[in-house]
Predict the 3D structure of the following.
Amino acid sequence: MKEKQNVLIVDDSQDSLDLIGSQLENDYNVTAVTTVREARCKLEAGRYHVALVDLVLPGENGLDLISEISTKYNYTAVIAVSGQASIETAVLAMKLGASEFIEKPIRNLYLINMLVEKTLQAQWLIAENKRLYAMVHKDIDTNLIIGNSPQIQTLIQKIKKIAVLDTLALITGETGVGKTVFAELIHRNSLRRQKKFVAVNCGSLTETLLESLLFGHKKGAFTDAHRDKIGYFQEANGGTLFLDEIAETSLAFQVKLLKVMETGVFRAVGGDNDLMCDTRIIAATNKDIKAMVEDGTFREDLYYRLNVINLHIPPLRERRDDIRILTSSFVQEFCSKYKKDELKISPGVMSIILHHEWRGNIRELRNALEHAVILAENNVVQPEDLPENIAGIPADDQILPELDKTSWASAKESFSKHYVHSLLLKTGGNIMRAASIAEITRENFYKKCTKLDIDWRQYRKQDENEIGG
């Protein structure tokens, strides 16, 4: 069944409202108001495809409203309506943004349907031309994304295809991989880019607070509701709402969310009236949401509604090609933030960074480099500038993650690598000192480095004139 379009009628004559409304209500979702003030409230609360505006209204005139709609709500087409306006006023209405004009009294009621349909078709053609233009011109704003790995480039190509299509998307990946960044990238390259991008972490909120934040609430709806407050659905109307950690929500809340997604209609907490919105939803989770559907902890219908397009962001340890460029970018960022001269990265630090597992992904890397930039001296980041859990000896579970699946030879090699690694870190790449601690000859230590495929030169400390990384 074809989805009904939303039509707003603004006229101070109740007879006109009843006449036009009854003519359109079978084919469209009709909302009728009598003042400019009421019209503004409706436009802020919901998305309308067509507005029929009388030019002669009490208080502010219809021309002001037409101009405002054309400026602030350019997705809403305007049809001017009047029985008292002069030809000059009608022409001015068209110049201000009205696409059609109807003169009252309206003798042919079918003319209303024809003009509304014609206006909708014109709006669709404009939107379609924009969409096709965006698809043909493949370059998109990727300033938010740092990474050259094949995995990231594949994701960007996928985003090029879906950003302008207004489709739903589900982003999956571990904590810290940048799901919010990818969601904002989709918004920035969509036809909704002029409207708001609003992000909310569902996992950090109680169900009651989440409902209040998303749907808004009326004064007195609960103890601390001292005033009316609009929700994120209204705030992001015409734009994009990003629901992070969607798998943390309750089944009861998921039912309410599904209804909004299917109808575009919701009700504020404690409210009596339905509100409309046209908000693109992008959701994200770090959990196996498909497994949650199978065990009944996430609604299957909501999962399939959200998962029209799936974007899986791989962890940083699976795309190590991106680590160098991320490191360089973060160091520059924090040098600027803390007003430090450009810092170089010693080979030892880069080796540590490239081989660390980064279980916290980009977020962990970013925090580690901020720590390092703050502590760095002499314009060079050294191993001791990194957080201890990264620069120090790895924990036992990192050295031998699965003892029951590891052979004696593999366990021995794993321990040897980490042992040599820690010695080189501690001595700054000084082979004589490292060999002395290990109580073996320098020549034997060189051989062990070669056998374990460890480049001891990368651990050497540099002075400020040397170039690292």
Notes: Residues 132-139, 393-401, 462-469 have pLDDT under 50 and may be disordered.
